[in-house]
Design a protein that fits this description.
Distance between the termini: 22 Å
Number of helices: 22
Strand order of the largest sheet: 1-2
Shape: globular
Structural class: mainly alpha
CATH topology of the domain at 34-279: Glycosyltransferase
CATH class of the domain at 34-279: Mainly Alpha
Order of helices and strands: HEHHHHHHHHHHEHHHHHHHHHHEEH
């Protein structure tokens, strides 16, 4: 390994990461622009404008968004979730509907002709065939299929008969009942359940007179629930798609003047980017800040970071001190963003706990609250879900290997004697750890890999990303001092076998190498022993070459968001590279230090 090139690449990544800090000391990052967000937003604004007869109010925003969509159509005629994503039926159907709802079909006739050709060649030429293709993609989970079909129905592109109903009346029950009610949308989609459920009921009432009566009685009460859970920013989850779907649904049933719609429109209007597009979400400020702090700690450079106290104070302010009105989550967790639309979850909370451990491990009250919050989230299967315990019947509410591993990494900090005793007992922490390890052992695949819940690879079968999942789980085994265990050794063997011939890693074997996935693999394999040494050196060489050629500016779509909606984040290549290269140089320095 060329030490000078390693050092230069590390310093390049480090400088780029530090340059992204705010004056307060944290990071904000930049999420990818989204064709889906742009399409749903302009459609929502067009419907509100039409319903309120405020002609011209949103013309500039609508024209800018439609112009951006036309300019960023994929060569095959469809649209993907990001400008680096493959075309998919979900985003393409929504973009198609946006042109119709905004009345700009004639002006973009050729764009729509190419879109129709793409859809018809892959999914059929009739509205019924296209609707069935959307439903098939999502199966029992209606979180995203119903909003897509509702938007298409509002545009006159499918019949309302193709739009499954949503039981919005269930939102009137206490939150503690939700996990027992088998709600057909994931926990974070409660606003869609209420608003879209009412829209379907309005445009296609149930034939059952009893059900019609129940839903009629639930309209006002469920709208009050919707108003109560709307954040002060107006953006549900800080996400343009979910906020737009709520807006469209209510505007279509004569509720365009409802206070919820007003706040939604304000959020959407304020979220537009200079090029006329909308991002998938406002930001991942808390998530990228904790990732950055933990990467610097891994690299051994955290002691040289200025404004540590400021960023620690910032991070402490992001911890939820009250019961969350959206999910009913207890106090103690962290969300992905510092904005009011965030929801505490089991990936950001352990990330914050790890960061606090590195910044100021004497924050025992806050650390204890976070650990207790995670303990209360553990499912009966002993794994950790994202938002709510017990919502296990839909994909993004189930326990996840990446989430469980992240929690185990946070627990590992409690065993080294540096952190004083917290308000949760060591026995409780031990039960959480042991259960998590059993969950990971049961969910290791026969080939030795693990799958993550919130990350994917568009080049891999079923969009899976075993590279991310396996690397994150191995990090937990490493931090717990269990890298020699049988599950960890099988995971290492899989990761070594998945290395590409160019020396890098993609999301799965034989998929294109990326900085993100290569850095994740290298960082965990650095402590995997002599059997991984050759693979690590080849991986480092690939990573260094990519950084030398300017690759840090090319983020890869590896993230999943709302119902498998792809995104990429500007800071991921920087953060993961700092962690991998920084650990490599620390290991190298340690090996040269006289014992």
């Amino acid at each position: 390994m060329n030490v000078d090139r390693l050092e230069s690449a590390y310093q390049t990544a480090l400088a780029a990461l530090l340059a992204e800090r705010t004056p307060e000391g944290n990071w904000v990052g930049e999420l990818s622009t989204s064709a889906l967000s742009t399409a749903t937003t302009v459609a929502a604004l067009a419907l509100v404008q039409k319903a309120t007869e405020t002609r011209g109010s949103f013309d500039t925003l609508i024209a800018g968004g439609i112009g951006w969509l036309a300019a960023h159509q994929n060569d095959d005629g469809g649209w993907g979730d990001t400008v680096r994503s493959f075309s998919n039926i979900s985003t393409t159907m929504l973009c198609r509907a946006a042109f119709h709802l905004t009345g700009l079909v004639t002006a973009h006739e050729k764009t729509l002709q190419r879109c129709e050709a793409w859809l018809h060649a892959r999914y059929g030429s009739t509205p019924e065939e296209l609707a069935e293709a959307v439903r098939t993609r999502y199966g029992k989970d209606r979180t995203f299929s119903v909003p897509i079909l509702m938007t298409s129905a509002l545009a006159g592109l499918v019949s309302w008969r193709e739009v499954p109903p949503l039981p919005f009346e269930l939102a009137c029950f206490p939150q503690s009942w939700f996990r027992f009610l088998r709600i057909p949308v994931v926990s974070y989609a409660l606003p869609a359940l209420i608003a879209i459920g009412q829209a379907v009921y309005h445009h296609r009432p149930s034939r059952n007179p009893l059900m019609r009566g129940i839903r009629r009685l639930a309209i006002e009460k469920s709208l009050r629930v919707l108003q109560k859970i709307q954040p002060t920013s107006g953006g549900f989850l800080e996400a343009a798609p979910l906020t737009s779907f709520v807006t469209m649904a209510l505007a279509s049933i004569g509720r365009a003047d409802h206070p919820v719609v007003g706040k939604c429109v304000e959020f959407l209007s304020n979220s537009v980017r200079p090029d006329g597009s909308w991002p998938i979400d406002t930001n991942l400020a808390t998530w990228v800040t904790t990732l950055s702090i933990n990467a610097l700690a891994t690299a051994g450079d955290l002691d040289n970071l200025d404004r540590k106290d400021a960023v620690c104070d910032w991070l402490l302010r992001q911890q939820y001190k009250d019961r969350h009105p959206y999910t009913g989550a207890d106090p103690g967790g962290w969300a992905w963003t510092d904005l009011p639309g965030g929801v505490p979850d089991a990936d950001d909370t352990p990330g914050a706990l790890l960061a606090l451990y590195h910044l100021n491990p004497t924050c025992t009250a806050e650390i204890g609250d976070g650990l207790a919050w995670l303990r209360g989230l553990q499912n009966r299967d002993e794994g950790i879900p994202t938002f709510c315990r017990g919502w296990g019947h839909l994909p993004f509410d189930r326990s996840g290997c990446d989430l469980t591993a992240h929690v185990l990494r946070a627990l590992a900090t409690q065993d080294d004697g540096r952190t004083p005793q917290t308000i949760i007992s060591m026995n409780q922490l031990g039960d959480l750890r042991d259960g998590g390890l059993r969950y990971l052992a049961r969910h290791q695949r026969t080939d030795g890999s693990w799958l993550p819940l919130w990350f994917g690879c568009q080049h891999a079968p079923d969009d899976e990303n075993p590279c991310y999942g396996t690397a994150r789980v191995l990090a937990a085994y490493r931090d717990l001092g269990m890298i020699e265990s049988d599950p960890a050794q099988r995971g290492i063997a899989w990761l070594l076998a998945a290395q590409n011939t160019d020396g890098g890693w993609g999301g799965a074997a034989t998929t294109p190498s990326s900085i993100e996935e290569t850095a994740l693999a290298v960082e965990v394999l650095l402590d995997a022993g002599d059997t991984a040494q050759a693979a690590v050196e080849r991986g480092l060489s690939w990573l260094i070459e990519r950084i030398e050629s300017g690759g840090l500016s090319q983020a890869t779509p590896i993230g999943f968001y709302f119902a498998k909606l792809w995104y990429f984040e500007k800071l991921y290549p920087l953060i993961f590279s700092v962690a991998a290269l920084g650990r490599a140089r620390r290991n190298l320095a340690s090996s040269k230090t006289p014992q």
